[in-house]
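quick one, 265 residues, struct below
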Amino acid sequence: MHSGERKKRPREQSGFFHIILISNFQNLIFNDPLERYQFLRYVDKYVKKYGGKLYAFCLMNTHIHLFIRTDHLSEMMQCILHDYSLWYNKRHGQKGSILRKPFTSYPKFSQQSLLDTVLYIIRNPYVDGLCSHPRHYFWSSYAFYFDDKPRLSEYVTVDPSIIRNAFSSRAELYRVAAINPKQEERRAYEQFLEQTNRTHLTDDQVLRHAKSLAGNLDLYKLPQKNLNQLIIRLRKHPGASIRQISSVLHVSQYYVRCTLDSPAS
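---
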């Protein structure tokens, strides 16, 4: 194995997983409600077949979020994707994969991470500006947590325990679900600028500042040009140390120094 290559870690198969499915070429996954209903039927069928539980879902236009507890992750997902693709292609008289392979899965462990994941999933259309509150988005699991007869319940079963253990009422969930993390992060940063003297920054403050400057971009997948610009901005304002910049951006201190010493800085 070359020095620059990383050995691919085997996918974990047992536990709680945030699963993300993305359409090929960012095309629309679903053309009409029937296709969404059918996808949920397959999710329900195979989650139950493999003894798992579904805690949250959100069907977006170009991607899908699922939060599932299972001991057979790959086998279960292979069945869901195979059956749905077969049904979809037969309906449209076509061949090929609808969804990008392989699927993405993130294992979750702590109780807080379980709750955060459910909230992230049901907030997804709200954060993206598709609705005025998460409860108004029809194709998510929001209604399963406190409604007596949830919409979509004839197609899929959702375990409400994570949300019900965290919130005592429908009203409490409504208030918390209305928090937009992106807006809260920006408010926190603006407050930070007003209050701090910028001479003794914590690593957490530098990280929040870096995320604010990066906007919607992933800090750890920035193109080199954006990464270099971010390093320069963090150093000049609010005056982060080389160690802090290296730490929050996951680059070496040597790389940070070289970037700051370049003529462009």
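The first strand starts at residue 15 and ends at 22.
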